[in-house]
């Protein structure tokens, strides 16, 4: 039987099964009618759901429910007591983002379940179906015996109805989210972080994730039986997953659905399912570009710790400020400025001071010098995962930065998975996961404290991104994946396909502080494996491809001087966008993104490929019709190849317009970056 028919029949069987139980299934469709979400109860009164896309089964008969430590579970023995429908079609504005206006168009179903057997219990299921996917969440209202609850398990399943390929990183691993992606048949996934993206046998692409992760634990996807993925909530050190009180809602469980790979990149589902901005005026949240005392430590030229090679000196910081001022960068990040880095800083989180600079770093002098040069110092707080030490100093540390005019802090939680340290009132240390409820609440606390001082936060070693930047626009970026730092001299470098995989997985959650722009690709010399596995043009393209409102020019100033013509793209590219369009791509192979500058008329395009060189034909229909554009094209040269010839590139000007189709040749590990400037006379 041809694959396509097989899935159509499965869809039919699935729909029939759902309808065959005592209570009829309740359905809700996406506004365009293509996605159908149905819920019913099995013979034991267990709620379950399924998703059909057109005539294709995506998710079938998947369990719903919660288990508690010492309260009856929300599982069997329920009836559907209430059904109500609503919907929305509004457009809201992002203070910064990959697009200014976001349409939020959905149909909503609210189902109220009541127990018919066992102790009296109630819960609601909220379902929102957009054209680009589905979100559903539990609401547990206030009720007898459920004031304080300890959730020990969430029963939510995603019972996939098709085979396919999954792109995933392991959940609950020692390295948090910083793993290389695995590309495997879906049934070989063990425990995976989300977003987990899949290409189903039919060609449809889906990605499972969550939105609005607040006061709850993040989940990984646990393949309990072949094709049946279950939400596995990160555990707290006290053994439960979530401690909370009724009434509460869980984060949204999300499934983005698209006929092709790029549709996932154009989806706004995760943002739409988050609450609007609670911070009011956020004009103090400043997108922009930065440089910093950073890469030199990663490649072993300087140190975070004090001593002869200490990077964060007053003189070195001024050198970076001069460079930033000369080329119009907004900020200078300085790591290693504060005491606590000497010795094994990875394991010494308890001794970091967040207010005491090393003697060779004059904090007041550098912030004054930065201000005089129209640049801001970017703060740095590496906690090594000791959140108690950080929380104890946070108010003072933020006050200090606020008094110096610092508007942005990069935080860090370097500690193995499960090794976040929290010390209780009795002096006992508890070890927690970066995606546990404890950590989730810590990150939110940091945001709130920072917002009081008009400070934005860029979290490294964070919990995954679930769209909370909408609610807290000062959560300006984060890491949460293998970034550029892995191309230094202390790790197996990211392979050429990595950045393409990131785009279709990690980036679906939100901005990433990847820190692109390494120009000295063979920084340890030609004979070592420690290098950047890309061409120079690929580095430029990343500024457009990997979205973040703050982008670092990560290399040393002297390395930019050697390719000043290519560096011009980094100088010119903005980080805040009016619109973004994923134009073409396949997961793990290549991707092309086009973005229009916010507050301007220029368009920018970034294209990257994996280890395969390829020629793409890119229609430029995203450009405004009616006039030509001067395109400055930064592309791989004929002989470019990440491995043998990464510096072969061409920079050329062309006149192109809305009707053009651009032929782009990308080298192995290569890329292209283009700036389109409108020519204001009408086109010929
Ligand atoms: C890990 C971060 O990802 C990296 O950017 C930083 O330099 C180190 N921690 C030190 O804080
Ligand atoms: Ca990191």
Summarize the structure.
The chain is α+β, with helices and mostly antiparallel strands.
Can you tell me about this structure?
The termini are far apart. The protein has 684 residues and is α+β, with helices and mostly antiparallel strands. The chain has 12 helices and 38 strands. Helix 7 packs parallel to helix 8 and helix 10 runs parallel beside helix 12. The longest helix has 18 residues. The protein binds 1-deoxynojirimycin and calcium ion.
Shape: globular
Mean pLDDT: 96
Q: How widely separated are the two ends?
A: 54 Å
Q: Structural class, from helix and strand content? A: alpha+beta
What small molecules does the structure contain? 1-deoxynojirimycin, calcium ion
Largest sheet descriptor: 10 strands, antiparallel
Helix residue percentage: 10-25%
Percent of sequence in beta strands: 35-45%
CATH class of the largest domain: Mainly Beta
* Rg computed from alpha carbons, rounded to a whole number of angstroms: 25 Å
- Count the helices. How many? 12
Topology:
Blueprint: H1 3-20, E1 26-29, E2 35-41, E3 47-53, E4 56-63, E5 66-68, E6 78-93, E7 101-115, E8 122-130, E9 133-140, E10 148-154, E11 157-159, E12 164-168, E13 182-185, E14 191-192, E15 196-200, E16 205-211, E17 219-225, E18 228-233, E19 242-245, E20 248-249, E21 252-258, H2 261-265, H3 269-272, E22 288-293, H4 295-298, H5 314-327, E23 331-334, H6 363-372, E24 376-382, H7 387-403, E25 408-412, E26 420-423, E27 429-432, H8 437-452, E28 456-460, E29 475-478, H9 498-504, H10 536-545, E30 550-552, H11 557-561, H12 564-572, E31 577-586, E32 590-597, E33 603-609, E34 614-619, E35 627-636, E36 649-656, E37 661-666, E38 671-682
Parallel strand pairs: 22-23, 22-30, 23-24, 24-25, 25-28, 28-29
Antiparallel strand pairs: 1-2, 2-3, 3-4, 5-10, 6-7, 7-8, 8-9, 9-20, 9-21, 10-19, 11-18, 12-13, 12-15, 14-17, 15-16, 16-21, 17-18, 26-27, 31-32, 32-33, 33-38, 34-37, 35-36, 35-38
Bound molecules: 1-deoxynojirimycin (NOJ) and calcium ion.
1-deoxynojirimycin is lined by residues 294, 335, 382, 412, 414, 460, 479, 485.
């Amino acid at each position: 039987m041809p694959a396509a028919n097989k899935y159509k029949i499965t869809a039919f069987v699935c729909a029939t099964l759902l309808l065959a139980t005592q209570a009829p299934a309740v359905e809700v469709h996406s506004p365009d009618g293509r996605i159908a979400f149905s819920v019913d109860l099995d013979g034991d009164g267990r709620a379950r759901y399924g998703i059909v896309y057109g005539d294709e089964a995506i998710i079938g008969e998947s369990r719903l429910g919660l288990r508690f430590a010492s309260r009856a579970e929300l599982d069997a023995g329920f009836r559907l007591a209430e059904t109500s429908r609503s919907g929305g079609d509004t457009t809201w504005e992002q203070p910064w983002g990959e697009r200014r206006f976001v349409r939020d168009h959905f149909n909503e179903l609210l189902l109220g379940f009541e127990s018919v057997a066992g102790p009296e219990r109630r819960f609601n299921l909220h379902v929102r179906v957009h054209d680009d996917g589905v979100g559903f969440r539990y609401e547990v209202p206030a009720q007898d015996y459920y004031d304080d609850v300890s959730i020990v398990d969430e029963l939510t399943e995603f019972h996939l109805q098709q085979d396919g390929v999954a792109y995933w990183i392991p959940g609950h691993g020692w390295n948090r989210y910083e793993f290389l992606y695995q590309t495997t048949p879906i049934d070989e996934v063990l425990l995976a972080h989300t977003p987990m993206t899949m290409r189903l046998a039919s060609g449809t692409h889906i990605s499972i994730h969550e939105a609005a992760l607040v006061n709850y634990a993040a989940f990984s996807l646990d393949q309990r039986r072949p094709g049946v993925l279950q939400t596995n909530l990160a555990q707290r050190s006290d053994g439960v997953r979530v401690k909370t009180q009724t009434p509460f809602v869980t984060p949204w469980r999300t499934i983005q659905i698209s006929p092709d790979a790029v549709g996932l990149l154009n989806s706004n589902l995760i943002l739409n399912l988050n609450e609007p901005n609670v911070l009011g005026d956020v004009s103090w949240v400043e997108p922009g570009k930065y440089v910093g005392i950073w890469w030199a430590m990663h490649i072993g030229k300087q140190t975070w710790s004090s001593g002869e090679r200490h990077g964060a000196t007053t003189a070195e910081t001024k050198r970076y400020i001069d460079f930033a001022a000369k080329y119009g960068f907004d900020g200078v990040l300085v790591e290693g400025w504060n005491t606590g880095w000497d010795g094994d800083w990875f394991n010494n989180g308890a001794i970091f001071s967040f207010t005491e600079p090393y003697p060779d770093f004059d904090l007041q002098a550098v912030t004054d010098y930065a201000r005089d040069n129209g640049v801001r110092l970017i703060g740095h707080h590496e906690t090594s995962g000791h959140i108690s030490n950080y929380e104890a100093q946070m108010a003072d540390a933020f006050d200090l930065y606020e008094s110096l005019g610092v508007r942005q802090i990069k935080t860090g939680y370097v500690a193995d998975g499960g090794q976040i340290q929290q010390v209780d009132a009795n002096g006992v240390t508890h070890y927690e996961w970066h995606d546990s409820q404890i950590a989730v609440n810590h990150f939110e606390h940091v945001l709130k404290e920072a917002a009081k001082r008009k400070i934005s936060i860029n979290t490294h070693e964070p919990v995954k991104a679930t769209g909370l930047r909408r609610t807290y626009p000062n959560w300006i970026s984060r890491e949460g994946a293998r970034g550029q730092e892995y191309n230094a001299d202390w790790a197996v470098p990211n392979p050429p396909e990595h950045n393409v995989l990131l785009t279709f997985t990690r980036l679906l959650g939100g901005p990433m502080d990847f820190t692109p722009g390494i120009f000295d690709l063979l920084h340890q010399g030609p004979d070592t494996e420690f290098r950047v596995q890309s061409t120079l043009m690929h580095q430029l393209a990343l500024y457009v491809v990997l979205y973040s409102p703050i982008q670092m020019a990560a290399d040393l100033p002297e390395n930019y001087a050697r390719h000043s013509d290519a560096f011009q793209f980094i100088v010119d590219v903005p980080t805040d966008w009016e619109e973004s369009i994923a134009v073409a791509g396949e997961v793990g192979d290549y991707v092309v993104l086009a973005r229009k500058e916010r507050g301007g008329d220029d368009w920018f395009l970034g294209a990257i490929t994996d280890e395969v060189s390829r020629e793409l034909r890119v229609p430029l229909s995203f450009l405004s019709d009616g006039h030509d554009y001067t395109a400055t094209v930064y592309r791989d040269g004929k002989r470019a190849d990440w491995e043998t010839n990464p510096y072969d590139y061409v920079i050329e000007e062309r006149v192109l317009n809305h009707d053009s189709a651009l032929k782009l040749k990308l080298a192995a590990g290569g890329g292209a970056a283009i700036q389109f400037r409108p020519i204001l006379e009408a086109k010929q």
